[in-house]
């Protein structure tokens, strides 16, 4: 983005154009890429113009923040889907299953168990993405690439969960392409079709590597405080 804080709507339109261009260059149908507008830290006043611009899929990284902010917005607008893209503690599984339509941070057995229990209890089925820590960074959440197949199998067989796809956040200081390629490879060999990858800085590259869900915050809302 040339400006730090684009006027409301301008960022969204630019991101949509970039997604179309990236799809054309990759020989893909833009309908196969879902834009998730990451609204973390932004309040309802900042989100309303983006909804007015036609955006219906939003992402948050904290359950508490989303729970405080979204219910009034959901009451005012039809057809909005909320995705949780940040780490999830097992003790927040109940709130997460109640509020979100997709959860991108499934990365450990205890969480798989907590989600399975809540999904049964609430009869809700958010789409689940297993987060892959492609850079095997110790401070980061996600399962390592070598543990991915076993974890996906455990989600399916032990917990009866339908895994929808994979998510990754490449290391900040590395070229993202190999991380996107690795995530796509793990998805393929596990029969998964959805790929949540790509943020403001790299969503065009992610689309070239098969991203079906791009998570874009800054390029839509401007810089976070
Ligand atoms: C904040 C966040 C994003 C969006 O990042 P931008 O660089 O602002 O586009 C995407 N994914 C996750 C998991 C995030 O926490």
Brief digest:
The protein has 225 residues and is an alpha/beta fold. 43% of the residues lie in helices and 16% in strands.
As laid out across the biggest beta sheet, the strand order is 7-6-5-4-3-2-1-8
Which ligands are bound?
A: pyridoxal-5'-phosphate
Strand runs, count: 8
- What is the CA–CA distance across the termini? 16 Å
Taking all Cα atoms into account, the compactness measure Rg is: 17 Å
Number of domains: 1
CATH H-level superfamily:
Alanine racemase
The CATH class assignment is Alpha Beta
User: How much helical structure, as a percent, in the residues?
Assistant: 40-55%
Low-confidence stretches: none
Please give the count of helices: 9
Describe the structure in your own words.
The protein has helices at residues 10-26, 44-52, 63-76, 93-99, 109-122, 145-157, 177-189, 203-208, 218-221, and strands at 34-38, 57-60, 81-84, 102-106, 127-132, 163-168, 194-196, 213-216. It has an eight-stranded parallel beta sheet. 43% of the residues lie in helices and 16% in strands. The mean pLDDT is 96. Strand 3, helix 4 and strand 4 form a beta-alpha-beta unit. The chain has nine helices and eight strands. With 225 residues, the protein is of the alpha/beta class. Helix 4 crosses helix 5 (109-122). The chain has a single domain (8-221), classed as Alpha-Beta Barrel (TIM Barrel). Bound molecules: pyridoxal-5'-phosphate. Residues 38, 40, 61, 85-86, 169, 199-201, 215-219 line the site of pyridoxal-5'-phosphate.
């Amino acid at each position: 983005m040339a400006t730090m804080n684009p006027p409301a709507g301008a960022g969204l339109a630019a991101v949509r154009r970039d997604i179309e261009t990236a799809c054309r260059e990759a020989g893909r149908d833009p309908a196969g890429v879902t834009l998730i507008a990451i609204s973390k830290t932004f309040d309802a006043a900042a989100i309303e113009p983006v909804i007015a611009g036609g955006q219906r899929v939003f992402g948050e990284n904290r359950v508490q923040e989303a729970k405080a902010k979204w219910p009034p917005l959901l009451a005012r607008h039809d057809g909005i889907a909320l995705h949780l893209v940040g780490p999830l503690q097992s003790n927040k599984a109940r709130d997460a299953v109640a509020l979100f339509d997709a959860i991108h941070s499934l990365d450990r057995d205890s969480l798989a168990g907590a989600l399975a229990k809540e999904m049964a209890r609430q009869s809700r089925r958010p789409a689940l993405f297993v987060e892959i820590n492609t850079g095997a960074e110790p401070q980061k959440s996600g399962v390592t690439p070598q543990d991915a197949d076993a974890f996906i199998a455990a989600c399916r067989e032990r917990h009866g969960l339908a895994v929808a796809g994979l998510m990754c956040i490449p290391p900040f200081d590395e070229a993202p392409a190999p991380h996107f390629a690795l995530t796509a490879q793990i998805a393929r060999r596990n029969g998964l079709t959805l790929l949540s990858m790509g943020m403001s800085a790299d969503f065009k590259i992610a689309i070239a590597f098969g991203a079906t869900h791009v998570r874009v915050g800054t390029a839509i809302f401007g810089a976070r405080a």
